[in-house]
Design a protein that fits this description.
alpha/beta; Rossmann fold; six-stranded mixed sheet; GMP Synthetase, Chain A, domain 3; four-stranded antiparallel sheet
């Protein structure tokens, strides 16, 4: 069969939908508690989903649908000897026939039976049962980072990890500039969320080499920098805000002679936060100060807990390549939930294809893709993908009303960060009378200034930039004398992402 990722746009799009339609018929409708119930309530039959436009018959799934009962989103056929938690079908005969055949030909290779041959249930039964468990039994879960205050889990089976995860994560190697001997330092904080486990999955299933620091609370940043140099690392994997902190520290250590230049540093993979053009350039400037390679490039990843995997750029500025084999992608108008044309802005919606464990149909990510999604062949890697064009922002969360003006928070952040002389900052949205939702809005900016810059001049430039970008003038710019203290405070709340904007108003407008 021709490589799925080499198909023409039309062939791949049709094949992706056909795989989704078969998946709904064979797995989701019979074995998924939530969607089986949803289809029945709405009078939908799997045979009704014949063409992409028919997907509109399936209601969009939101996080609020998932949060109350995550177990109902795990595909779970009724199995002999197991009590059923929900109204799902008994496992089908074609699945059982597959397990019997696998047990005879030992595919996939299974070592567990070597230690169970004398159990009274018998050698053959043990091997068949093991293969049932491999496909359907949850063996791992992690949760969202919890920035909403209510983390939700994503469950994986053995089949997920050795099938869709392995193939999808391997897309990292589509980058022509990467070699098999690349060595990466993972400076994501150790926590049960996708951003951390995605890197582990990449190492274990895609033969990538690296070391996981578990973040600055486990391995201090200064020690990480020494490890990078001593271990001959060439790549960093990080959240952008922590990468800035790490590179600043590295540049200072190089310039003071505490560590030799990081001359092997040639690439960084960033995820979990937006990566604007201005931030890209700022990071590259820090890399040059730290002694990195002149051809350093910065690529970004994109994912979320519910997706169960992340996606990447194959090359700097190639834009995010979304997997079309194990996902079906839609872009919907945020007001009407109607599909938009290729390349038009809208909210990204996905459906899983051929996964087990936690699975979704038409899951609303809440991410507004300003440049839309275009299904096309990438000029860099030569493969066909739905490609996501930035900027990417939260359809609701990344906007706010401030003094009656609709403000894009990423624009507010960029307006401050891009001001010459700004070392670090935090914007605080408050009320003139704290706690009084009816008093006027107040914008306060805490500012740490780079050495060699006049604080009052930087503060005035920040006021002008914020006013020019957002049409809102800061009420107060506070100069913070301790740069390091402010930088550390940004990570106090989550320990993962920098909190550049703090909402202190009693009602979000």
């Amino acid at each position: 069969m021709r490589n799925f990722y080499l198909k023409s746009v039309d062939d791949q799009r049709e094949a992706s939908f056909r795989r989704l339609s078969n998946y709904i018929t064979d797995v989701m409708y019979p074995y998924h508690p939530y969607y089986r119930k949803l289809f029945k309530e709405h009078g939908i039959k799997p045979s009704d989903i014949r063409k992409p436009s028919d997907l509109a018959k399936i209601p969009v799934t939101y996080k609020d649908d998932y949060r109350p009962d995550p177990i109902a989103f795990i595909v779970q056929p009724k199995l002999p000897g197991r009590d059923a938690l929900y109204d799902t079908d008994r496992i089908g005969g074609k699945f059982l026939a597959k397990y019997v055949a696998q047990s005879i030909f030992d595919h996939p290779r299974d070592y567990a039976h070597l230690y169970r041959a004398n159990y009274k249930e018998g050698f053959a039964y043990t091997k068949v049962g093991r293969r049932v468990a491999n496909e359907w039994n949850p063996i791992h879960f992690h949760a969202s980072a919890g920035s909403t205050g209510d983390p939700t889990p994503a469950v994986y089976t053995y089949r997920d990890l050795h099938g869709p995860v392995t193939e999808t994560a391997s897309a990292f190697w589509a980058g022509k500039d990467l070699t098999w001997d690349i060595r990466a330092l993972n400076i994501f904080p150790g926590a049960p969320h996708l951003a951390f486990f995605q890197v582990l999955m990449g190492k274990w299933f895609c033969a990538a080499s690296g070391f996981d620091t578990f973040g600055g609370n486990v391995v201090p940043t200064e020690r990480q920098i020494h490890l990078f140099k001593e271990g001959g690392f060439g790549a960093l994997i990080a959240i952008p805000s922590y990468l800035v902190y790490w590179l600043r520290k590295a540049a200072d250590m190089v310039e003071s002679g505490e560590v030799e230049p990081l001359e092997k540093l040639f690439i960084a993979l960033c995820a979990a936060e937006p990566l604007t053009d201005s931030l890209r350039e700022y990071i590259k400037g820090l890399v040059m100060r730290a002694g990195g390679r002149d051809d350093f490039r910065l690529v970004q990843g994109y994912g979320m807990t519910e997706m169960k995997i992340a996606f990447y750029e194959c090359h700097e500025n190639s834009n995010i390549h979304l997997n079309p084999k194990y996902f079906y992608w839609e872009v919907l108008d945020p007001e009407t939930n109607e599909p938009v044309a290729d390349g038009e802005p809208g909210v990204l919606v996905f459906s899983h294809i051929d996964w087990r464990g936690t699975c979704f149909l038409r899951y609303y990510t809440g991410d507004l893709i300003a440049g839309g999604v275009r299904w096309e062949r990438c000029e860099h890697c030569g493969l066909t993908y739905p490609i996501m064009y930035p900027p990417i922002m939260r359809a609701k969360k990344d906007f706010t009303k401030l003094k009656g003006t609709r403000v894009a928070l990423m624009e507010l952040i960029s307006a401050v960060r891009d001001t010459p002389g700004v070392y670090q900052f935090q914007s605080i949205l408050d009320k003139e009378v704290s706690g009084d939702e009816f008093s006027r809005d107040k914008l306060i900016i805490r500012l740490a200034v780079q050495d060699g810059f006049e604080p009052d001049k930087v503060a005035e430039d920040v006021r002008k930039n914020v006013k020019g970008t957002t049409e809102v003038t800061p009420d107060q710019v506070i100069i913070e004398p301790d740069k390091e203290k402010l930088e550390l405070e940004l990570f106090e709340k989550t320990g993962i992402k920098a909190e550049y904007v703090v909402e202190n108003r009693p009602v979000h407008l």
